[in-house]
Design goal:
16 helices; mainly alpha; tryptophan-tRNA ligase activity; Tyrosyl-Transfer RNA Synthetase; 2 domains; two-stranded parallel sheet; Rossmann fold; 57% helix; 5 strands
């Protein structure tokens, strides 16, 4: 490999939002210049919680939206390989082999699995969701990813990948790198309703593609200090989503600290604090919107990037699978049977 490899990506369930940005995309933008970067459109992972025909029919459109968002955030298409997970069936072969290198109790200890099931409204955990980290290991190791930028929720998943890589190497020889986790500086962004992390399905997200009016509307409806009924009542800054967003997205630190001091003293209303947040967010999003418009204007470009990236990635995964089967002895097992069958065929065909 000419350069260390990075594997990252998202499930194609819709447009990306500010939570995705702080959780992983900001790191991707910085890191993709240093690494050979693979961006997975993880539609097989999507099936663990969204698997109706209607969900699947939306994959191609959502894939385009997702890739466009990532490019708009600042990823250079010349330095990134985007690929559709379901178009590479060899990853499923690796997933099958890796399933034998991890136990059910180990997977049940991954904290985010139960959270994902709950968020999807599932009373019981599907087999595929329990095995989510194993398929993720197949994704990462199939391209021999060495760096995985992750948010807080996925850190435990990638730790399973590291364990599987070490276990495989111990049993069958050094084939895989043990990937390094790179966590974001802001691992979780609370939703606009103050109820858990930002999530499209909860309707508490600000999309990277939202226009200025939509951003302002969502900000003005944000949850603040519930005990503050008037502007002259001292308010709480800590745990207040509006100030959490100011801390992340408002580069004017003097303004933020002044607003916090006035809020604590009961000398500023929620409306002013939110108005200034809306301005800061729209300034942050303006360059992203401009880049998105340029990519959207080039019809078919994103589709071409996905197709070319998928073909390139499948070739890489095929090479990895050959190496894995050879290391495990699976190739030689079938070769021995085939040679014996060939000798038998010749013996039957040749009269004594």
């Amino acid at each position: 490999m000419s350069a260390p490899r990075m594997l990252t990506g998202d499930r194609p369930t819709g447009r990306l939002h500010l939570g995705h940005y702080v959780g992983s995309i900001a790191n991707r933008v910085k890191l993709h210049q240093r690494y050979e970067s693979f961006f997975i459109i993880a539609d097989l992972h999507m099936l663990t919680t969204k698997n109706t025909r209607e969900d699947i029919e939306q994959v191609s459109r959502n894939a385009r939206e997702m890739v466009t968002d990532i490019l708009a955030a600042g990823v250079d298409p010349a330095r990134a390989t985007f690929y559709l997970q379901s178009a590479i069936p060899e990853v499923g072969d690796l997933n099958t082999l890796f399933q034998n290198l991890v136990t059910v109790p180990r997977l049940e200890r991954v904290p985010s699995i139960k959270d994902m099931a709950r968020d999807a409204g599932k009373e019981e955990i599907p087999y595929g969701l329990l095995g989510y980290p194993v398929l993720q290991a197949a994704d990462i190791l199939s391209v021999k990813g060495q760096v995985v930028p992750v948010g807080k929720d996925n850190a435990a998943h990638v730790e399973v990948t590291r364990e599987i890589a070490r276990r495989f190497n111990h049993l069958y020889g050094e084939v895989f790198p043990v990937p390094e986790l790179i966590s974001s500086e802001t691992p979780t962004l609370v939703g606009t309703d103050g109820q858990g992390k930002m999530n499209k399905s909860r309707g508490n997200a600000i999309a990277l593609s939202d226009d200025p009016a939509a951003v302002r509307r969502k900000v003005m409806g944000m949850y603040t200090d519930p005990n503050r009924v008037r502007a002259d009542v001292p308010g709480t800054v800590e745990g207040n989503p509006v100030f959490a967003y100011h801390d992340v997205f408002n580069p004017d630190r003097g303004q933020v600290e002044e607003l916090k001091a006035r809020y604590r003293a009961g000398r500023v209303g929620d409306v002013e604090v939110k108005e200034k947040l809306a301005v800061a967010l729209n300034r942050f999003l303006d360059p992203i919107r401009e880049r998105r418009a340029r990519f959207e204007a080039d019809s078919g470009l994103v589709d071409q990037l996905i197709v070319e990236g998928t073909e390139r990635t499948r070739a890489e995964v095929r090479r990895t699978l050959v190496e894995v089967r050879r290391a495990m002895g699976l190739t030689s097992a079938y070769s021995q049977v085939r040679r014996r069958a060939e000798r038998h065929r010749k013996a039957v065909a040749t009269p004594a």
